[in-house]
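Because showing beats explaining, we think one record worth quoting, sequence and backbone structure tokens together, and here it is:
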Amino acid sequence: MSNFFVRNLCLKQKLVITTKDDKEPAPPWVPAPNGTLINYTRSKLFPQLLAAVMACWINLASGASLGYITPALPSLQHPSSRLQLSETEGSWVASLVMLGALGGGCLAGPCISLGRRKALWLAAVPLTSAWLIIAVAPNVWALYAAHTILGACLGVICDASQLYVSETASSERRGALGCVPVLMFNVGILLCYTAGAWLDWENLALFGCLISVPALLLPIVLPETPSYLVARERTKEALASLHWLRGSNCDINAEYQELLQCKKGAGLIERIQGLCDREIIRPVMITAAIRMLSRFCGLRAILCYTQAILLTSRSAVDVDIATIIIGAVQLIATLVACGLLDKLGRRKLLIVSQTVMGVSLVTLGCYLYYRNDMDRSDGSVLGWIPIVAILIYIVGNSMGLGPVSGIAIGELVPQRHRSIASSLTGAMSWLSAFIVTKTFLDLQSSLHIYGALWLYGSVCFVGVPFVYFCLPETRGISQYAIEVLFKCKDSISDQAISDKPSTDKIEVTIQN
């Protein structure tokens, strides 16, 4: 690829490549392979938003499985419950969702390779069945099995829905629409928290089954993603999908020509070998690191044991009301993130997010450490510190680390490697989530609850320099231009741009 093509493509996507001989930026257009100049036209938002919401309805049902254990666990441990769980059994029910998601993360790649839309539909069937198993569970082993199935579905849904939205959204709207999967997860969590205030664990499972039914039907009317269809050389279907997603009056030629420039998918062996290439392994490693950071910050442990943390801290707020408030704040913060991701960019939000999360966890830990020296009366101002610290922590996660860790796989990794990279990074992510959820009670016993919170806070602070030095800004950049970005970085670092005059100095900058 010539420097001329790379330079003008990057300029269009807000990547500036200049030489010392350049006096002004090149004009913002992109040459097609035949040399014709193509102008970009703005696509319609509504069909892309409709596709994202319909595809991510299954995220809502799966999000309910993440929120189920918080209101259901006290009901399962109540003396009048048909099943009564011990503290150890309750921790296994909470953590088996994560362990099942580990298996689902490994299955995500093969399922996604069949098609993003088909993967969502395949996950909807066992998801609905698992809710029914919970509702009629005769013993704790049935609960174990059902939550493992819920977790396996979660592992597939998390990556399949995120890839579907990332690959169907236009580059200027990918950040905002990329929050829709996380947003729908949070809607499901909030619905489960709210319903759990009035329903016991059996009826709450039936409620989860009810909201899962639309997920069986909605994927049928959705188009497959254009990049997936182009990679499979189904060009007519790709054009039809682009027209569906961008609007019938939108000129899709530029986007279609750019998709054709992306390398087509190779065989399984070639794709595995390709992961060792520097231009591939770098985005895969960055994606894996961000996803693991989002787990080791302790979010799942805090959400699962919110009521226990508030009771231990003797919060001034009723725990049932506090749980609903946390779910609502998580949803609102994700809505705000939809607008901020395309305005401020990924890197800034990640740095601010992890800093806020770390400070809030350290503050909560300090409150718990010095609790015996403080006024613990319900009417005191200090009694509000635990719930406020948790809310700030949730806001920080929902406005940065949560959504960005989701969209990373669809932005950084090239399309031809996403199925394998999804399995690899998904397995690492869900294994981390299982470790965090299962070991929280052990950490609480050995380090006390304040020590566990300080440990999670330290992980948040470690993530700040990593993001600053390692993560490139991808706001408003097309999928193909992101591939060019990593290629340019490798070429420049190796001084391997063959058609560059020896007197030129090339500088790549990413505009925030």
